[in-house]
Amino acid sequence: MNSESHGSDGKKGSDGRHTSHSSHESHQPIQRPIIQSRGDYQTLLSFQKAEVVYDITFRFAQKFLSKGDRTVDQMIQSARSGKQNILEGSKAATTSKETEIKLTNVGRASLEELLADYRDYLRVRDHQVWDKDSREARYVRDLGRRSPQTFELYREFVETRPADVIANIAICLIHQTNYLLDQQLKTLEKEFIEQGGLRERMTKARLNYRNQNRG
Hints:
Structural class: mainly alpha
Radius of gyration: 26 Å
Strand content: under 5%
Shape: elongated
Largest sheet: none
Number of helices: 8
Order of helices and strands: HHHHHHHH
């Protein structure tokens, strides 16, 4: 072997340059991945609850609203938009934090619109919206703490209770989902401020690469 060719002990290699010490590597800044990983959207509690809201709303609209009533399609579409935009936002997270924030916001707005429809349904029929501290609302909150959240937790109530009870259950669940989305959006916005978007991460990674490989 050439006497100038040494291993990773920090001595000169065959090209005359010093090879890196492992201790040098430990001092280099940790680079965040350009394409960030994202957990399965189905594990998001906000998505699980939004899916339950959709399942309840579909059945509610079909059972209690008149055929031909524009509110049927409106409520179902709002519920679907809430669910789908959370899903699509989560999937977009790997490449675009901006898109994730935008779609999550759209989902949040769709659920707010659905909330207004349920309140309208109760109001024009002289039904009450449950107080948040009522026994019924507390019971739904207790159900909402179970994991995972699925329609099966609520099926019996949806299939056996009157329309005003089901509407109030949906309202409770929408409030829970919106709360989770508000917290989710705060986290996403904080991450965007701290880490930037894809273009910024690509530029930063490229500059770091150039700095580390200058002769």
